[in-house]
Amino acid sequence: MGNVEGRVAGKVAFITGAARGQGRSHAIRLAEEGADIIAVDLCRNLDTVGYALSTPEDLEETARFVEKTGRRIVTAQADVREAGQLKEALDAGLAEFGRLDIVVAQAGVAAMKGQPPMQAWTDGINTNLVGTINAIQVALPHLTEGASIIATASAAALMDASNKPNPGADPGGMGYMVSKRMIAEYVHYLATELSPRGIRANVVHPTNCNTNMLQSEPMYRSFRPDLEHPERKDAEPVFYVQQAMKVPWVEPVDISNAVLWLASDEARFVTGMQLRVDAGGYLKWYDYHV
């Protein structure tokens, strides 16, 4: 039977974007603490995203990692932009496990400088924002008291975007920020409605996280626009500007540990939280306020 102990023992988690990066890390970390996993990912590229997305083999590898913990996993290739595909994937997991306790809406892309520009905006909004809403809303009918919803936004959602010196120059990049900010607002109001039902909903805001999205030429170019083809060695010294602590990025497991806490009964009275795992990035931008 695998783990019978653990901080989420006996629970079932539905995780989008689980083939690699943060999503894979969340799946493994929750499984290590006793959860069974329903894992979905697109497993193909998008034309407007300038780095390779996950593959079917990546999703299979996530499954192997979860199984090594002794927990069970159901995987599906599904597009978070299509609620019907997510419902089908979730239904397959429910048929196997019979319950749902945790939703981790992790799937996201950065279509910065994507072409054509407005398609980059659309793909980013539909994947990050609509995809998060779809994942949560197909799960809502199956959640009961004690359940926990965790959505991944970004430190980008918290940045001051009032200064737009070059409107329209990068709709994909702006779409990323907008999608993450709207995730935060959506979950805030959702948490309010779910509170009397004993269901919690929270947002995690990572800073730079050491994944394929960060370690990609489009991201390097956003930090080093002065170079035509910047490499990791060019961008890494500039990555530090995002954080107050002296690190260029955090690791996926740092986000997973926050997700685990929010999913567990240790956080049973924590809801509507905008939880920053940002190495002090927010502190560089804002004065104190409640």
From TrEMBL:
Domain of life: Bacteria
A Pfam family this chain is assigned to: adh_short_C2
CDD domains attached to this UniProt entry: SDR_c
InterPro entries: NAD(P)-bd_dom_sf (IPR036291), SDR_fam (IPR002347), SDR_subfam_1 (IPR023985)
Any GO molecular function: oxidoreductase activity
Keyword terms: NAD, Oxidoreductase
Gene3D superfamilies: NAD(P)-binding Rossmann-like Domain (3.40.50.720)
Family, as annotated: Belongs to the short-chain dehydrogenases/reductases (SDR) family.
Name under which the protein is recorded: Carveol dehydrogenase
Species assigned in the record: Mycolicibacterium cosmeticum
